[in-house]
Amino acid sequence: MEKIITTPSESNESMLEIDLKDPRVAAFLAWLIPGAGHIYQGRTGKGILFFVCIVGTFIYGMYIGGGRVVYASTADVFSRQFLDRWQYICQVGVGLPALPAIVQRARMREHKEPFGNFMRPPYDFPPLDQPNLMQSPDLSDPNHVVTSPDELSKWNYDLGEYFDIGTVFTVIAGLLNVLVIFDAYGGPLVIAPEVDSGEQTGKT
Amino acid sequence: MIHLLQQAPSMSSCLLAAVGIVRLWYAVPLVTSVSLVCAATRHEEMGAILNHAARFALWIVVFMGIVLGVIQLLTWMQ
Predict the structure, then answer these.
(1) Which residue from B minimizes the CA distance to A191?
(2) What's the gap in Å between the CA of A54 and the closest CA on chain B?
(3) Domain span at residue B52?
(4) Overall domain count for chain B
């Protein structure tokens, strides 16, 4: 299902014609990999711009947050507790880069060993093989350790404000990709009014 | 009000200290990214995108500055 739209060109008086190809495929690709939908449509410059901005923001947020800020709740999807980690619903807007969190969530729910610590949900209780998991060094007194009630509290203690800053970066990256998905599906937001079919055929 | 204006220089230094200049640098990549993506969803040509992004980034900075000023003013009035 090919779709072609027109939008005003700023460099001259003419109209730009954009071939959206199959908008649904483009929207799916745009979600899966930011910018991929535009590259599929031949809008390569915008595709690269979206990829760099969104994936860059997401990775930078992960870096600031020590790789801990993207994870999904292990609670049932339709339960109230799932919304305690509402940030992931926004983060998953970035597509493939956020999907490992779903795999890690599934493994934790099945009481299996997660694939490393990458995008792993926090433990409520320390696993048997890591009894000291909830302990952090006390920055004010090296002879003491701080024991957190759960791993999420430990991450907040260890990372401080950077946990929140990293979360904000990754959430915004996911939300920005929603705009990109709409752009891939329907073209730019400012679209010229459709030309009357009567004018196209020369009728007045 | 006059008393408030007389204290303005020291207040501004307090403002900067309170905000934490270093933390403000984290806003730079975010504002850049948000303005570029939003501008790119409204235009198709790179020149128009960059032009819109520059204006939008300035608008964000001014808006955030106003909000920061209002919050700081409310803090002083407490």
Answers:
(1) B42
(2) 7
(3) 2-77
(4) 1
